[in-house]
Amino acid sequence: MKPLQDNDRPVWHYQPAEGLLWDPCAAIKWQGRYHVFFLHSSWAEAGAPRRSDGYVYKAWAHISSSDLVQWEQHPDALKRGQTGGLFVFNGTPTLVFPHPDGGGASCFASNPDGDLLSWRFDPKDPVLRHPVQGDGLYPRSNDVTAWQEDEWCYALTGQRDDRDGGDTLHLFRSRALQDWEHMHRFYKSRRRWTDEGDDCACPQLFRFGERWMLLHFCHRRPAGYTTASGSRYYLGRYQDQRFQPEVFDNINWPGGNVHAPRSLLDEDGRRIFFANLNEGRSQTECEASGWSGMLSMPVVLSPGADGNAVEYAPVAELEALRQEASEPRAVHVAADTELDLPDIQGDSLEIDVEFGQTDAEEYGLVLRRSPDGAEQTRVSFTRNPAAIRIDFSRSSGRGDLHYLQGRTVQEVPLRPDLEAPSCLRVFLDRSVLEVFAGRQRYLAQRIYPGPEAQGVRLFSRGGSTSVTRMQAWRLGRVR
């Protein structure tokens, strides 16, 4: 096996020492600490543990932090589990998750000690059996979430509607987590938003401003990739134990890497979002390097001013990663030119730039540029259509990459009814790129340039662009 430290491996994003990091299954702020549980498959021994049908078993790994920057690893909460959730039932932290051997059944584990460390679970006794879709794995797998209302525990599972097509969930309830009543279909999807082949995986329901959010993940990658798989959400009304979607939008977009969303609410009222940033490397290369996948940076989700959209921002705690600072002044980029920024170079950076007057068709940043320009990644605003773009067609000269959804450009529309964002904030961590377009959009992209690709430039195409403010920092681990 190759050494675990390599040019692709991030510096400050959380990642286990080895193996596969997959779905964040649960997150909570509990007794002063942030806790995240995620699916993990160890590769330390001879191959990943597999079920008889070839499925790789995954544990519920557990980490916690007091500051969202430095994370402590704890013993696994579960040795084998699937994507579920964590909630407090009658004062006791409780995990809910699909049975690791499939079959449409869900299980519960309790933590009477309240330390989130010692979990009581009998794998032979799944208590919530889903009668709606029958046995089997995806597309009949049943990610599950649960919460308490009054004396009832409610659970959502059954992520696809085989009768009418499309994503959905079914609602169950119980007073004691033992005898479950199937109530009804929780919501019905609409074809103007989603496709009949979509599903509602990794569901999480919570109040969000004046509405409720149903945060979830879609597995489907339809022909032509016109609909994004990955993280997305509904906003709507939750009333009488039914959900009425009113707004739909994607968080992940074709070519992007934002997988399996999960969020928590802290005591300051912040809704903090995590996801798995999946790989663009081949499985062979991942296994040879000893690791695959990583946890995204923590992102704050907030309701937009009109309640019809989500705003995104990095958590302020990440400023603790800042080391060396640079602040170019009075920058102007002439039409159809690139301006080198020799004081801002590296593979682990935060760059915050505010653009001023422009008549350009496209303008933005060139990142991780090799000296000869053969490797580079472009992050830019476009005017027609109004969009934020990540062009990773030249991000790497390697031949082992197989980017998801067959894309080399990730293009995300900006809302025409809002003022176009003038601020671009990017975070680099070796093979990880995360981008904020004002507060309108959050994007993530995996890139794999060589170690010599450290350059940063500004560019403007089809017109000139001024920069009213620009700051940059090298980022490193907190010591």
Structure description:
By secondary structure, the chain is mostly beta strands. The protein has two domains: 19-314, Tachylectin-2, Chain A; 322-475, Jelly Rolls (Sandwich). Helices cover 1% and strands 48% of the residues. The chain is built from one helix and 35 strands. Strands 23, 24, 26, 31, 32, 33 and 35 form a seven-stranded antiparallel beta sheet that branches. Strands 25-34-27-28-29-30 form a six-stranded antiparallel beta sheet, with no helix packed on it. A hairpin with a 2-residue loop joins strand 1 and strand 2. The chain is globular, with a radius of gyration of 22 Å. It starts with 18 loop residues before the first strand and ends with a strand. Residues 132-139 have low confidence and may be disordered.
SSE inventory with pairings:
Blueprint: E1 19-30, E2 33-41, E3 59-65, E4 72-78, E5 85-89, E6 92-98, E7 105-110, E8 128-129, E9 145-149, E10 152-157, E11 168-174, E12 181-188, E13 201-208, E14 211-218, E15 230-239, E16 242-250, E17 258-265, E18 271-277, H1 283-289, E19 291-292, E20 294-295, E21 299-303, E22 310-314, E23 322-326, E24 331-333, E25 337-340, E26 349-358, E27 362-369, E28 377-382, E29 387-391, E30 409-413, E31 423-429, E32 432-437, E33 441-446, E34 455-461, E35 465-475
Parallel strand pairs: 1-19
Antiparallel strand pairs: 1-2, 2-3, 3-4, 5-6, 6-7, 7-8, 9-10, 10-11, 11-12, 13-14, 14-15, 15-16, 17-18, 18-20, 18-21, 21-22, 23-35, 24-35, 25-34, 26-31, 26-35, 27-28, 27-34, 28-29, 29-30, 31-32, 32-33
